[in-house]
Amino acid sequence: MFRKAFDALSAPVATRANALHAGAWWLWALGLAVAASRTTNPLLLGLIVGVAGYVVAARRTDAPWARSYGAFVKLGLFVVALRVLFSVFLGSPVPGTHLLFTLPEVPLPDWAQGVRIGGRVTAEQVLFAVYDGAKLATLLICVGAANALANPARLLKSLPGALYEAGVAVVVAMTFAPNMVADVVRLRTARRLRGRPTGGVRAVLQIGLPVLEGALERSVAVAASMDARGYGRTAHVPAAVRRTTNVLTLGGLLGICAGSYGLLAAEGAGYGLPLLGAGLLAAVAGLRLGGRRTVRTRYRPDRWGARSWLVAGSGVAVAVLMIRANAYAPEALHPGVVPLAAPELPLLPALSILVGLVPAFVAPVPEENP
């Protein structure tokens, strides 16, 4: 009996029938991103990055879009370095007493008071810049995890009919860069096997033309297939339905924006969550009505099963628990830099973040990584 229960809970090998819904991965990643937005503690931010990286390593495939996670990690490191660089050269409002070095200061006119170029650089302002940059870098890495795990084509299939045209543009944009990188790797490997150089300006120019040609051929093929499938056809709907759709969609999006701002703000969780829920309901109703104009069918639509609920729910749980943690441990989630002190790892928020590891155990295992 216990063995049957364990087999039912263990993750199966991914197939076309049991593959996880792409929307579940995005909800999981957005939950981690919301959690990252609620803290500047580098230990908690590093834990979020570790959770996202572990899940990506355990459940990503070898598809082109699955290789984007490393690029987002590098982008996050670049953001941290850029934030520190701006703080060093443009100053910071954070006072500090631990002087690191002094840069030549550029004199500015009176109308530019409050702006400084150069001058004193303290350890406190550099540490504050590191905390602030790490927060933004973690948000980017969470988005990179969703890009690496969610199949863009299957995500497009699950979009409402009203967002189909915009979704096609987004999917094409998301898949262009990974495919271009794959083409560059393939051409460089071919040149290396032929004994030709792969570095230098001349090699880059010789590789660039085939890459652009391949991108153009893919664009033409995609356009032809979309035209053959009747892309862009619309059905006639009454004017009253169109006006109601516009009002619901616009009002819902405004509610989502206001609610999201409330959740991301320091003291807006009280009104942010109800406003976000009302905005989502209005937006969903508007999208349902707007979908009547799009004439298309879905072949073998993806199903939202129990494992999708577990994956999406784990991300939502991490976000809710971290929002709750701001009420009972604000100092631990936002460590100060004046005076200088080492950040501490709060136990309960750290355990809350570990809930995000659920997809690494319940999501179907890719066939390439059984």
From TrEMBL:
> According to Swiss-Prot or TrEMBL, what is its membrane topology?
Multi-pass membrane protein
Q: Which residues cross the membrane?
A: 43-59, 71-90, 162-185, 247-265, 271-289, 309-327, 347-365
State the UniProt keywords alphabetically.
Membrane, Transmembrane, Transmembrane helix
Subcellular location per the Swiss-Prot or TrEMBL entry: Membrane
Q: Which InterPro entries does its entry note? A: ABC/ECF_trnsptr_transmembrane
**Main location per the UniProt record:** membrane
CDD domains in the record? EcfT
UniProt superkingdom: Bacteria
Please give the name of this protein.
Answer: Energy-coupling factor transporter transmembrane protein EcfT
Source organism of this protein record: Streptomyces cinereoruber
